[in-house]
Amino acid sequence: MSTNLRIALRFLTARKRSMLMSLSGIVFGVGFFIVTQAQTSGFEEFFVKTILGTNGAIRIEDKIQATMFPMIATGAHFESKFEVAAAREARKYVEGVEEPDVMMDALRRFRNVSGVSIVVEGSVVADSSFKNDTAKVYGIRLDDHLAVSDLAAQVSRGSGSLENFRTTPQGVLMGQELANRLQLVVGDSLILRAGTEQRRYRLAGIYASGVRDIDRVRIFMHLGEARSLLKKTTGASFIQVALFDRNRAPQDAEQMEQVLKHGAQSWQEREVSWLEAFHALQISAALTVSTIILISGLGMFNTLAMIVIEKTKEIAILRSMGYTRQDIARIFIWLGTIVLVLGTMGGWALGASVTYGVSKYPIHLRGIFSADNFQVHWSIWHYVVGTLSAAVVVMTAAIIPARRAARLEPGDIIRGTSQ
């Protein structure tokens, strides 16, 4: 142990109560910073997984109409015509995907694509023995759709089974909310009406995606049956795409638009408002909790300033023994470092234990997603950012008194004229 560190420890124990208060503030500040960030990012992560499990990472929809228009360029000795593409906002689209199977083959050639599913969508009225309600039919090929969604897990959370749906040509999968509204259980029959066409189907399974707006309107059925009911014998309403790396969705969507000449929308673009709301909550929580660290830093600054005043004679003796200004400054830097290390380690332990405890706390959340307990996201970056925040405050609180102590001269202290 160095002499400077040993002296710092002696100074530290001189004001135990004040230092313990500052240390406790750092521990609680770092710990609660970690907990709040784990919670806000946990709910964001859960929301993203829910969205990807229902609507996919990218959705390929309408065909882009040719929107090239001529422009004339003139100069001193020339005049020429050239074509300019319209901006994205001014594009015109042709509804639907005309050749979905060809499009699927093309999409599978993209390196980041992990699954592709065509969907035929249409509005219907669902009639049960008790009441009727509006809904939307989604015609799918089951195996393809399982590759781009969490439908298998969603049916497990509801009731029935995918095998029952797979082996029942007239079977449908219905959201939990819609099934409750129609008072249906697995095995019941219902009538679906699309325009003048109406047919009887059997409820093969109930899914629970966790998104109320989805669970109350979507009805999945086999693709061929959906085409027949909706009178859409060709084409598709859209193609749902899953990716290996979801964060590359915007770049992949842009590339798909250029190559396939169809509109491609990434999940970040679809859910931009919710993502911005989660981001704002994270910043707000970080700023709020950081005030605990800031207040603790101010308390520590006050404590170190008092130590400088109380230990002027000891500092004079040290300077007389040959200690340089840098040595005196290092003693007070060591004081801050000790508090920082102990505070952050205690904060890590507190943050990890409270985060684990919170993750087990039951709740009943229904709305944009469904959750039965607090969602947390474990990330090393929460600990890193919390430590950096504490380091800035604590070391700033230590450096200012350290510089003041380093400026003290032995002669001024003896004469009583030190400032």
Give a topology summary.
Elements: H1 3-14, H2 16-55, E1 58-64, E2 68-74, E3 79-85, E4 93-94, H3 100-107, E5 113-127, E6 132-140, H4 142-146, H5 151-157, E7 159-160, H6 162-166, E8 171-175, H7 176-182, E9 189-194, E10 197-207, H8 212-215, E11 218-222, H9 223-230, E12 238-243, H10 249-260, E13 262-266, H11 267-270, H12 272-310, H13 312-320, H14 325-359, E14 362-365, E15 371-373, H15 380-406, H16 410-415
Parallel strand pairs: 6-11, 8-10
Antiparallel strand pairs: 1-4, 1-12, 1-13, 2-3, 5-6, 5-9, 5-12, 7-10, 8-11, 9-10, 14-15
Characterize the structure shown.
Helices cover 54% and strands 22% of the residues. The chain is an alpha+beta fold. The chain has two domains: 193 residues, no CATH class; 139 residues, no CATH class. The strands form three sheets. A six-stranded mixed beta barrel has the order 5-6-11-8-10-9, surrounded by four helices. It has a two-stranded antiparallel ribbon with strand order 2-3. Helix 2 crosses helix 14 and helix 12 runs parallel beside helix 15.
